[in-house]
Amino acid sequence: MLVVMKCLHTTILVSDLARSQYFYETILGLQQTRRSLNFPGVWYQIGDYQIHLVVDINYKNTRINADKWGRNPHIALGVNNLQDTISYLESQSYIFQRSASGRPALFLQDPDGNTIEITHIN
User: Fold this and answer.
1) Is residue 1 in a domain?
2) Which range marks the domain in which residue 23 is found?
């Protein structure tokens, strides 16, 4: 039987690396991990988890639900103060949707339309 012990990383396809790096580093505040790659992309370290951005210049996001972003494939990231996050995103004029369920979470999109959930954790 297969026994999964932990999630190690998520790969997100992007069409323009510089544009995506701005989002993930400046808007989300992620720290890049220096690793040599045999392909265009970058890795970000969050605790013991990584996000890999991999360039596909022909990538087109196929969002299933354009109205409710949280009902699309997405990655969820935890923050310790959702209100501060909301204030920051608003100061950057960054568009987001609050969770339709009423729980303390919001959804935003990277430049390629990949959905990112930001949720409050203690």
Assistant:
1) no
2) 9-57+68-120
83 vs 120: CA distance, rounded Å: 9
Separation of alpha carbons 36 and 26, rounded Å: 22
- The C-alpha atoms of residue 88 and residue 112 are separated, in whole angstroms, by 21
Using CA atoms of 88, 94, 96, 98 in order, give the dihedral in degrees to the nearest 10.
30
Position 4 in a domain: no
Number of domains in the chain: 1
| Distance spanning both ends of the chain, measured CA to CA | 34
Query: pLDDT tens digits, residue range 15-50?
Result: 999 999 999 999 999 999 987 888 899 999 999 999
